[in-house]
Amino acid sequence: MKIGYKLAAEAFGPKELVAQAERAEQAGFDFVEISDHYHPWVEEQGHSPFAWPVLGAIAARTTTLELATGVTCPTVRYHPAIIAQAAATLAVMSDGRFTLGVGAGERLNEHVVGLGFAESVVVRHDMLREALEIMRLLWKGGYQSYQGKHFQLDAARVWDLPERPPLVAVAAGGPRAARLAAEHGDGMFATEPDPSLDEAYRKHGGDGPHYAEMPLSWATDEQTAVKAAHKLARWSTGGWPVMAELPNPPSFDAASQTVTEDDIRQSMPTGPDASGILSNAQTYADAGTDHLVLQNWGPDIEGFMDFYRSELDGPLRALSPS
């Protein structure tokens, strides 16, 4: 099991995110993953810096730490040719340590450029498939053109290419997306411990890494951990079908007004106890996860890094499907 740390770009500014990545490398994490958003989820989070320069700074200030987007939508706010260029540049800068996580996106971030956001999940997945085809084409080198239903490419060339194209992990919340990950990606990205996703991915020929995010809230006492997660992560209890559709932070705030602290306790491990975190992590291992991303909503980042190194690193790496 490889272990990653989620850089919450909605809750911290760019300099703090770079510092957290450096601390994660020192604590022994294998990789960091950063969300690629235009807006935060709720107003209280208060941040949303541009992920790509943050990743560039992290690449320059770390040596072994792998990097990933979790995830980028290369279909509305960005044209796929732009992400092909960005990912290639970052792969060069990081000496091949970069994984491009991609997904079909959320209205929260994509509507901002005024091009709309497809109502149909089928259309969004078809757009993502074309985007993946364009990026693969550009990473071959030379001038490339493409004529698709959703995207066009006109004699474009990415000049600075890494020795090997970056690995592409495709976000999957259901069997259709898991098949897309198998057929057009190099890995799969999930946000829940659902064995059916891994089964669908493997059934359609997927043989790459299975990334998954696991939320938790660490603090030296449980109530502090619960309060922090309720403030910053209550939006997450609605599930992706809801989260993909709401347009802005006030909408998420309104949709999460009825979420209680007990709901938070039920949705993630909270407090200082390693056993609860390890027990929850086992469900991810059982679901086929081999790249586990810890998303900590607790208020003490330094304390959590020390806790990870002393209490979690070895036991998490030793996890295997039961």
From TrEMBL:
<dbReference type="InterPro" id="IPR036661">
    <property type="entry name" value="Luciferase-like_sf"/>
</dbReference>
<dbReference type="Pfam" id="PF00296">
    <property type="entry name" value="Bac_luciferase"/>
</dbReference>
<keyword id="KW-0560">Oxidoreductase</keyword>
<feature type="domain" description="Luciferase-like">
    <location>
        <begin position="8"/>
        <end position="234"/>
    </location>
</feature>
<protein>
    <submittedName>
        <fullName>TIGR03557 family F420-dependent LLM class oxidoreductase</fullName>
        <ecNumber>1.-.-.-</ecNumber>
    </submittedName>
</protein>
<dbReference type="GO" id="GO:0016491">
    <property type="term" value="F:oxidoreductase activity"/>
</dbReference>
<dbReference type="InterPro" id="IPR050564">
    <property type="entry name" value="F420-G6PD/mer"/>
</dbReference>
<dbReference type="InterPro" id="IPR019945">
    <property type="entry name" value="F420_G6P_DH-rel"/>
</dbReference>
<dbReference type="InterPro" id="IPR011251">
    <property type="entry name" value="Luciferase-like_dom"/>
</dbReference>
